[in-house]
């Protein structure tokens, strides 16, 4: 559920449903069983009971600031448990974890670029100069120009947090040296790059607002496997770096 049109809202709870009151006092009642995740802006006012009801049912909430960037998340901490979470806790205690993690992220950016280049269409090829330019800028420098609305970064973050929680993984981990692994931000960045490259100039024809949200949701549903592939490769990386874990 997206609440990003700039309208002020109050969100409460009534039984097994969220009660959403707009600024003009129109009321919408939405059963919690129909909600998977919520993305809301800075004009959304939450009742504590409504937020607790979402967290109790495993529904993550992402807040977006006035610039359209993800400002933060609320998620049920009891869902963060399992072998991947335990492996990550061990991984960030390795003295060289930051170097290893940077190398892994670079390899995933290369995977994103190669996946895009292999899917441009039958009989078509990405020009060598363009591929090499993108490799230098994106794979090695982490920079990629926007082809879609900038707000899509926050939408990718919301989808990523939901997927991480389903895997029992936290959004952030802290290393022994006091530095953070911003896992949700990094995985969301890969997912956003998948979106950005595969949209190309098509996305520039999509208007902002509801049309861009619909475009994104359709794309995200069709490409959920890309998130699973990034996480699957993370699991393989952990096994390699830590040895066998269960």
Topology:
Layout: E1 2-3, E2 9-14, E3 17-22, E4 27-31, E5 38-40, E6 44-46, H1 48-56, E7 61-64, E8 70-74, H2 83-91, H3 97-118, H4 128-140, H5 152-166, E9 173-174, E10 180-181, H6 183-199, H7 210-222, H8 224-242
Helix pairs in contact: 2-8, 3-4, 3-6, 5-6, 6-8
Offer a quick outline of the entry.
By secondary structure, the protein is an alpha/beta fold. It is 48% helix and 15% strand.
Describe the structure.
It is a single chain. The protein contains 8 helices and 10 strands. It is of the alpha/beta class and 246 residues long. It folds into 2 domains: 58 residues, no CATH class; 164 residues, Four Helix Bundle (Hemerythrin (Met), subunit A), CATH 1.20.120. A hairpin with a 2-residue loop joins strand 2 and strand 3. Helix 2 crosses helix 8, helix 3 runs parallel beside helix 6 and helix 5 crosses helix 6. The mean pLDDT is 89.
